[in-house]
Amino acid sequence: MAVAARAQWKGYVRFGEVTAPVALYTATSTSERISFHTVNRETGNRVRREFVDSATGKPVEKEDQVKGYEVDDDRYVVLEPEEVASAVPESDKTLRVEAFITCDDVDKVYFDKPYYMTPDKMGIDAFTLLREGMRKKKVAAIAHTVLFRRMRTVLLRPHDKGLIATTLNFDYEVRSAKEAFKEIPDIKIKGEMLDLAKHIIGTKKGSFSADEFDDRYEAALAELVKAKLEGKTLPKRAPPKVSKPNELLEALRQSAGITAAAEPKRRAGKASAAKGRAKATRSAAAKAKTKTAAKRAPAQRRRAS
């Protein structure tokens, strides 16, 4: 996807005493997604959204709409637009690098939104110096600035001929993993089931390529719209069958291509291989013992004489 023609933000990136003018472009877009309008089922006309007073039911004009912070039931502290604007931190449009870190230092759960960072023509040398220095040292950079009216922490990483600038969530915005996972019981998996799971994972190793994955939801919506236009109905999909605890072993065997008839042979082969390894170990130990005895024999004969 081509970079958007209009920069979302222009400013500077600064590390040490080196400063380079840069621009940020959104790295992701939802413009290709299927979008819907809300319409009146009876008339087929679009529905217009309107703000109304919750008590009087009368429409409220845009100039009369202000921000309000609820301090009690139906009691608000009203903030005028200029008061809200005064709370925006002052900014000199500079992304200041605070530290260089390894990418693994930041848990990806903190990743918010990625942007492409490109240099201004006047700052290509300084920008390239930062990019290549980070690439050679295999590090990322943590920087801070005011972006879109808020102070943001940004992770900078070399990418192709530019940098990826990813805004990071604040700590209070990320839920505790312990809280989210606290209901998951501690279950120990071992033996054949764990061996089969590792085998299946080993056979499925690969690499990530974004163009190999389709947005099935978007495709399904397109199919639905096409079917509705043609007066057809799409068949309902059956929900996937959930593997029950007592079915896990059989499901793993099927995934690994092991049939019930082949299972005894697989076990026999596994046992035979284990016996073979044990026999080889004993044989190697016997040879080592014989070799040691052969070395000691001359010395024993000399002492005897």
TrEMBL record:
<feature type="domain" description="Ku">
    <location>
        <begin position="57"/>
        <end position="186"/>
    </location>
</feature>
<dbReference type="InterPro" id="IPR009187">
    <property type="entry name" value="Prok_Ku"/>
</dbReference>
<dbReference type="GO" id="GO:0006303">
    <property type="term" value="P:double-strand break repair via nonhomologous end joining"/>
</dbReference>
<dbReference type="Pfam" id="PF02735">
    <property type="entry name" value="Ku"/>
</dbReference>
<feature type="compositionally biased region" description="Low complexity">
    <location>
        <begin position="270"/>
        <end position="287"/>
    </location>
</feature>
<protein>
    <recommendedName>
        <fullName>Non-homologous end joining protein Ku</fullName>
    </recommendedName>
</protein>
<dbReference type="GO" id="GO:0006310">
    <property type="term" value="P:DNA recombination"/>
</dbReference>
<dbReference type="InterPro" id="IPR006164">
    <property type="entry name" value="DNA_bd_Ku70/Ku80"/>
</dbReference>
<keyword id="KW-0227">DNA damage</keyword>
<dbReference type="InterPro" id="IPR016194">
    <property type="entry name" value="SPOC-like_C_dom_sf"/>
</dbReference>
<comment type="subunit">
    <text>Homodimer. Interacts with LigD.</text>
</comment>
<feature type="compositionally biased region" description="Basic residues">
    <location>
        <begin position="288"/>
        <end position="305"/>
    </location>
</feature>
<comment type="function">
    <text>With LigD forms a non-homologous end joining (NHEJ) DNA repair enzyme, which repairs dsDNA breaks with reduced fidelity. Binds linear dsDNA with 5'- and 3'- overhangs but not closed circular dsDNA nor ssDNA. Recruits and stimulates the ligase activity of LigD.</text>
</comment>
<keyword id="KW-0234">DNA repair</keyword>
<dbReference type="GO" id="GO:0003690">
    <property type="term" value="F:double-stranded DNA binding"/>
</dbReference>
<feature type="region of interest" description="Disordered">
    <location>
        <begin position="255"/>
        <end position="305"/>
    </location>
</feature>
<keyword id="KW-0233">DNA recombination</keyword>
<comment type="similarity">
    <text>Belongs to the prokaryotic Ku family.</text>
</comment>
<keyword id="KW-0238">DNA-binding</keyword>
